[in-house]
Structure formats: C-alpha cells, structure tokens
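User: My instructor asked us to take a sequence, write out its structure as tokens, and then describe one feature of it. I'm not sure where to start. Here is the sequence I was given:
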Amino acid sequence: MTRRLFLITAGALSLLCASDCIGQPRDDRSDLVSPSDASYRLADGSVRVVGDLTMEPLVTRLNQLFIRDHPGIRFTLILRGPPTGIDGIVADVSLFAPLGREAWETEIEPFKRLTGYRPLDIRIGRRGYAGAGDQNPPGIYVHVDNPLRQLTMTELGRVLTAGQMPSDVRHWGQLDLEGQWAKHAIHVYGTRDDGRFVTGLRGAWFGGRPFRRDYEALAEDTDVLEAVAGDRYGIGVVDFVSRTSIPKNVRLVALAQDVNTRASLGEYDDVRQARYPLSPYLHLYVRSAPGQPLNPLAKQYIRLALSTDGQRLIEELKGEKEGYVPLAAEEVRQELAKIE
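Assistant: Let's start with the prediction itself. The structure tokens for your sequence are:
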C-alpha cells in the first residue's frame, strides 16, 4: 500500500474531510520540532494522527497535555470506527496509531509485507469495566439457570476451540456441573470468525486454534445474547455490549487468567490490577524498525502517556463511555522498557 493509495482509501472512508486540529500555533519553544519533510506532517505544520474513534477523548486530552510542554507542536486527529485501525502507520502518514483494542492480524499482515517487521505496540491503559458508561466489557455469558460461576482462560479455550490440552470440553459435567447439567452438551455461540473480535480472542488466548465445529456464529453480539437467553445449555462470547441490550435471563461468568488468580466479573479495581482478562488494552502502535532509534516525537508522546500525569489523566476519564482504566505500576515499567 502506498501513501497515495492510503489517501485514496481514506478519502473513500471520509477520513480526511473531518479533521480535528488540537492546539494553536505558538512560538516554538520545543526541542521536538517535527521535520518539514516528515510523512505524517501536514501542509499546515500539524502532526497527523490516524486511529480508532474510541480513543478520541483520551488522545484529545493527551494532545493538550503534550502541547503544554511542547507548544510548537500541533496535532490533527483523524479518528474513526472500524475498519480504521493502523492504516495510518501502514501508509506511513501517521505519527502513531491509537487503538482501543489489539490490532487484528488482518491489519498487521499488510504492515509486515511492506516493512518486514511488526509495528511497535505500546500499551498505555485499558478500556472497559463493569459499570462503566452504558457498556459491559467483553465477557462470557450463560443462561441465568446455569450454576457455572467462573472459568479460567484455559478452561474457556477448551470450551470454545478444538485441539486444546489435555482435552476439549464439550459437556457441562467436564466443568464439574452436577445433576442434569452433567448430561448435557455445551452449546457455544459467538460472532463470526471474520478477523475481528473473536478472531483476535483465538489468537491472543487460545493459540490461534480453530473454534469447535459446532460453534454457532451469529451476526451481532445482541444475537449471541438472545441465543443464550433461549438456551439453558448455551454459553456465549460477547464483545462490548450495551447493558440495556442484555436479556434478564442471562448473566456474566467470572473469569480468571489461570488457577492461581482470583476470578473477576470485570469490576474497575480488578481491571486496573490486571485481574480481568478480557478488558482490552489501549494501544499506541508505532512504525519503528527493530534496532533503529524510535522517532523522538513518538517516544516523548509515549513517555507522556505512561507518566504519572498521563496515567492520572486516564484515571480521570474513567467515567467516559469507553471506561478508561490506567495500567498497574509494573505494567507501566514494562511498557517504558520497550522504548528505552
């Protein structure tokens, strides 16, 4: 994909016709002046950032914080919903790509074909906790009559996919449910394995193994919830969903990363302490070749996002619809190590 091709595609998606310029020109007292020939620099001198609309409240505030310390820098945001993702860094016309989810492999592959490497992935926070705005974070739902209370991610992988060790889980009795439940097969529902949420889940947690043969793929997450509501022996994997769309006769299952961690329903404190596995990270993807210096402007922006001020800003935005959550302290250290 060439820069020209990106601009054509972006025009088709109406990305370039509704820019949001953050900040005003001021005397440049910054040591991070964007090069005039930088591919991400627009004719007006601003720095273009192309990415995910779910990041808009956060990136807008981070830009304002950045401009406070570097008044010579201005940003033009081009943020839209899917399929906009890391397109900007694929075409090399964006300083970085902010995403409120992990980039799908269908997005990574074009980048790898052009550059020969994967983009640098910096996590700056999380998105989604139970009770945030009007949405529940991604989760696993069962019928309200189901006695199952919790699952580890390993158990979930054995339920949803094929070829897991020590064996696949196909009946409720394999999850220690008793009585009539032990006799019944597990009916699995989810959305289509089309490169987006459930495909990313398979890759991130289940070794990329295929869904079981009887996995019933439906068009929308609300369809999955309705299916589970009408099936006492069903289980559904669901992305972000409005709480008002959740039928009364389904409920969330608590999830644990492994047998040594406490299961969680996605409460704020659990998400912040990395105890709920399905709340996605907030990412900044950067075009940075291994062994080469990171773009100084991108590096300073990442440092800001991971600083005390940046993480405090994320915490202050916890009430936003997207339900932003800062990283745990150890996670901040791990992410900073990627750029040092």
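For the description part of your assignment, you could build on this observation: Residues 135-272 form a domain with the D-Maltodextrin-Binding Protein; domain 2 fold (CATH 3.40.190.10). Try explaining in your own words what that tells you about the chain.
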